[in-house]
Specification:
Blueprint (H helix, E strand, L loop, with lengths): L2 H27 L5 H22 L8 E3 L4 H6 L4 H13 L2 H10 L6 H21 L5 E3 H17 L16
Parallel strand pairs: 1-2
Helix pairs in contact: 1-2, 2-5, 4-7, 5-6, 5-7, 6-7
Length: 174
Amino acid sequence: MWGNVIIAGTFALPLAGLAILLLARLRRRAGHPAPLRTALADVGVVVGTAPWVWMILTPSNRPSSVDLVPFQELLALADSPFDVLFVQVGGNLLVFAALGALLPVRTAALASVARVAAVAAACSILVETLQHVLRLGRVSSIDDVIVNTAGAVLAALVTRRWWASRISARTVPR
């Protein structure tokens, strides 16, 4: 089911490398204070997040549903076989991990756990809402929002030593 995503992601990696080099070069010419750092972060967020969002927004043949009771779906997963639990929780932790890891590296304006959590939660709510509105045959769940946000926060904490301290959103030329 996810073969197309894996193939596209594999072919996208060399293009991502090229995009990083070109973006860094353009930013260097524009006098950007951290051209390579921000190019890596920008492309990394896209390349690290897009495949997961593609998977989440892939239609299934099941009926759509909404689960707004926190931890209900996670508690139900606790009785599942380990491989199902691992894929469901692990996958949801990774959905916005690149976003959480790289946004604070990108700019000091987002270099806080609370801001990363807010951005990740907003993105996750958007994706869950799209699942429901587009009637993709998926479960739109508050638990997914919680776990997606937790994954972004954990990833942000892993990259904390590289967070931007001087790159302000206000001083960066567009």
